[in-house]
Amino acid sequence: MSDRDILELAPESRLPEEEGAGKGFWSKLKKGLSMTHHELLERVDAAVEGRGVIDEETLEYLEESLIGADLGVEASLEIVQAVRDRARGYEAKDPTRLRTMLADEIAVLLLDAPQPHRRPPGPRVTLVVGVNGVGKTTSIAKLARRSLDEGDSVLLVAADTFRAAAVEQIALWGERLGVDVVRQAQGSDPAAVVYDGLQAARARAIDHVIVDTAGRLHTKKNLMAELEKIRRVVDREAPDRHCLTLLVLDATTGQNGITQAQEFTRAVRVDAALLAKIDGTAKGGVAVAVARELRLPVLYLGVGEGAEDLVDFRPREFAAALVA
Amino acid sequence: MFDGLQDKLQGVFRRIKGEGRVSEEVLRAALREIRMALLEADVNFRLVKSFVERLEERALGEEVLRSLTPDQQVVKIVRDELIRLLGEAGSELQVEGRPSVVMLCGLQGSGKTTTAGKLALRLKKRGRHPLLVAGDLQRAAAVEQLRQVGEGVGVPVVTPEGDESVLAVAERGLSVARDRGHDVLLVDTAGRLHVDERLMAEIRALSELLQPTETLFVADAMTGQDAVSSAKEFAAALPLTGVVLTKLDGDTRGGAALSIRNVAEVPIRFVGVGERAEELELFDPERMASRILGMGDVLSLIEKAEQGLDKAETERLAKRMARDEFTLEDLRDHLKQLRKLGPLAGILEMLPKAGPLRGLDPSAIDEGQLVRVQAMIDSMTPTERRKPQILNASRRRRIARGSGTRVQDINQLIKQYRAMRKMMKGMKKGWMKKAFGG
To answer: Does the domain made of A124-314 have the CATH classification 3.40.50.300?
Structure first.
């Protein structure tokens, strides 16, 4: 797959040329996504090749491609149906238009979600939540790095007081980034740590407070209640701060991602998602399923293990890359 | 969430009730439902395709077409086929050498370190003397995590000194194990992407150095379609001997199990069912098949009940119920027994969602209510518990204050208790015997 391919599909999503550092986010995203979507590209090509018109077999093939990218059965059927409807019109004459149509339909689902500000004016707090092992702490390091680069002061709050060495993990990141970390002993009340963190942030006039929370399976009711309590503390202690609750989703996750998003949203009003680990071969299509089901926007992609490996999510680009 | 497959198939076959035989058209509709169910459960789509094709051959030729209960017949065939594909049941670690080496590998966040602790505890319980090696030098504080995990299960951990490499710390682990008489070396490794050539080369070198008797691929049960690519690459790079499926305590259907088993071609040995060190079980293909099909995990429930419930106590309570002597005290004992099984929502999660429990939302269960009822009964005097009719207004006020509830709650409890008594009287008259076979 060449860059031309992606750009042709969605020229409007062309990214601005790299600002600053050489290996910036376009090359990262491109690298991540090209590895991700190579297979899909071949299969769509195979489906299109040698056919004069879009037939049912081709559409079934597309449906499978989408399911294979973790979009889920419902979303895949819906998208392919939309393409089928459009294909009845004039566009049907040209099967090479198929990918564009598919990308369009996926982008529509992604763009339908309300887009919150990545950097709203004034002081803010980001509450990072998710199930175990999705990459919350690493993502926090990336968010912190982003804010520092933008000139904001950052304070990290180690509210994962449950998992062994979770506090040490974020403390280490704090050290690497030169950012203070508010922490208490393992096993202490996470809401209390958050309270401390917000007090400290007020005293030091910190711009961006980022709260790490313990990974929890969304089926554990008491742990979800704990999260609600943390959210209440934030609302009560820092009403002046713009609060963003960010759900970290693992790109390798399948359809369970939808339930995760539902349950976390129920507990703490999730504002947006961060799709982590998109640098593997997983296509991260669950983000589309989540956007469709819950109108939950994706704000960022995590594309590596370094603090700089964070890119802004661009719906059109992602959609194009999914089917490119 | 998802409805059970059986439920959907019932719907499909209901259309032909009375016709006496199943048409091919109806069977195809059933196969479509099966396809959807498997895809929703995250089974890889290629696998689903071949699975459904095979099923079609079997079902079209076979007894299904003439069966009086085609839905059950189809579900049985599907389940049998899934069980077959999921392979053998889990087995304990093979630890023969001195020391024998067990190495864990997998993607980031799959649960390797937690699993290392669980395996260490399991080996210890088998009378072994494991030694943990911290081989994750990538992630921040991963070494510290394993150190704490080891401390938690009482197993020593070899951690890197200075800027020791992974290979060096592993080698030192081997000699420490020999010197101190540890018979199993459990090596935790860094999470890595299967496309990361540098780290894959590193783990291959580690494997060649250690010559492990067991190499376990640790995989998240929530993984989607990509499960096949990562499992394939790890299986190609390392001499895998098994798979550990983690985070099965969530509500994922776990179709990845099928995908991984299929491409890695090694048995699934263990499943992780919680964050605590003892929450590791041997893999059971029948349960997994039921789970993938959304048929509930009745086996787990029965096992849990057997472990959690005091049999003599349960029988005593049943007798009292039957004799219409069930007091508030008995109710409290009964609740205590029930709560030993763990969170109620978890129990309900294991039940099939088809049939009478359709539409039940386990997350809507108010666990706190059980705690409150127990507190209310605890705040009563023994006489009050046996004769709730003496509970006048001032007694109720006292109990409410004592248990941190409101008088309305006490009233509610008494009302429910009366209704229960009434129901039990009804049961005595026979349907209980009929329903539960005496």
So the answer is: yes
| CB neighbours of residue B197 within 10 Å | 9
Average pLDDT over residues B160-184: 95
DSSP conformation letters of A99-136? HHHHHHHHHHHHHTS----SS-SS-EEEEEE-STTS-H
Task: Give me the domains of chain B, ranges plus CATH numbers.
Answer: 3-86 (1.20.120.140), 100-290 (3.40.50.300), 302-436 (1.10.260.30)
A-to-B residue pairs, Cβ atoms closer than 8 angstroms: 160
CB contact under 8 Å between B251 and A218, yes or no, is yes
Residue B299 has what pLDDT?
54
From chain B, the residues in CB contact with A181 under 8 A are none
> What is the per-residue pLDDT across B385-427, written as a single tens digit (0 to 9) for each?
888 888 888 999 999 999 988 888 888 888 888 887 777 766 5
The predicted pLDDT at position B412 comes to 87
Contacts with B227 from chain A: Cβ below 8 Å? 252, 254
The model carries a pTM of 0.79
Query: What residues of chain A lie within 8 A of the CB of B256, using their CB?
Result: 254
The interface pTM score, or ipTM, of the predicted complex is 0.86
Domain spans of chain A? 3-112, 124-314
Average predicted confidence (pLDDT) for chain B: 84
Select the CATH number that applies to the domain covering A3-112 from these four: 3.50.50.60, 1.20.120.140, 1.10.287.990, 3.10.580.10.
1.20.120.140
Whether residue B223 and residue A252 make contact (CB cut-off 8 A), yes or no, is yes
